[in-house]
Amino acid sequence: MAVQDPRPSRLGLVLTGGGARAAYQVGVLRAIAEMLPPHARSPFPVVCGTSAGAINAAGLAMAATHFSTGIKRLEGVWGHLHTSQIYRSDLVGVLHNALRYFGSIVSSRMAGRPVSLLDNTPLRQLLACHLPFRGIRRSIHAGALHALGITAWGYASGQSVTFYQANPSIIPWKRAQRIGVPSRIGIQHLVASASIPFIFPAIRVNREYFGDGSIRQIAPLSPALHLGADRVLVIGVNEKKEMDCERVKVTGYPPMAQIAGHMMNSIFVDNLDFDLERLRRINQTLSLIPESQVADTPRLRVVESMVITPSEKIEDFAREYANSLPRPIRYFFHAAGAMGPKGSAMLSYVLFEAPFCQALIDLGYRDTLRRQDEVYAFIFERQE
Known about the structure:
Layout: E1 11-15, H1 23-34, E2 46-50, H2 52-62, H3 67-78, H4 91-106, H5 121-130, H6 134-141, E3 147-154, E4 160-166, E5 174-175, E6 178-182, H7 187-193, E7 203-205, E8 208-211, H8 222-226, E9 231-235, H9 256-287, H10 291-295, E10 304-308, H11 314-321, H12 327-336, H13 344-350, H14 354-370, H15 372-380
Parallel strand pairs: 1-2, 1-9, 2-3, 4-6, 9-10
Antiparallel strand pairs: 3-4, 3-8, 5-6, 7-8
């Protein structure tokens, strides 16, 4: 006899990292919002974000009592975005920061000072203008949000730290190389989670400096489960990989941007694929165990998952819109090989320009509508 769980299913939303690619997530969420009645609450009581996905996650959490309003706010930001709102793109700013970065390599006088290739000070101003952080607490008090988790990576501890603001019933956790810390989420958590190594500076939160949360995030689904989700919808920002890779003859040494692009792909994508595969194997194993025995072990449970990823290569979009970048940044990236076809992967992470972002929003919207019945069934048919 099957054991029925009296609690309603709690759906978690996992938004992965990916720099400018995170605009794709907004298109997916816009399509989901259109499946809801007007003025409806968010269907995601648990929201977790990493890197640029952390910014989208926070925006949703702040407007959990009115889901469509949160989506419109995010789309308004991404759809009108300019590089200068994320990092300094003027000639003086680019040169000054580049000189500081390379100076830190050859001079001990710069040791201990925050250095990076790009200065993301404008990002703080953008977040302060568009994200009302008090909304997180209001959403929790209204019962529309159970938990918000923002993951960053600690440079000193080497731990993947999920800062969370949640219902008081959530208990902090500690696992191998990952912990959960109750916090009042603010700008510093989002900027830290989105600070891609070398490109953006590390951010101090409490006692430690933090960088992009995708680094060594060995279990990207784990924060959502610790925060109470028993099902997860994952919105990724990389197209599904083909099993067979074509081997081609190499005629020259790979440019720096090509190497950096592969490094970013490994940071933002690979661990998610491994974690999803692990989740499916656990589910398969549990399906072979009698339900009565599973019920006697509360920590073991089947967790349903659904993944939405781009149907087209985002690198192709990046090549198409590369010239929308400010001229100083184009020169800077051209020197690194990012403006060529081999550097488009790296370019797609830092191309914070409205035409590119809007194209990704539209792609996410189309991809979700193509799977509308499947998405609707997964999100809404088990809400009761």
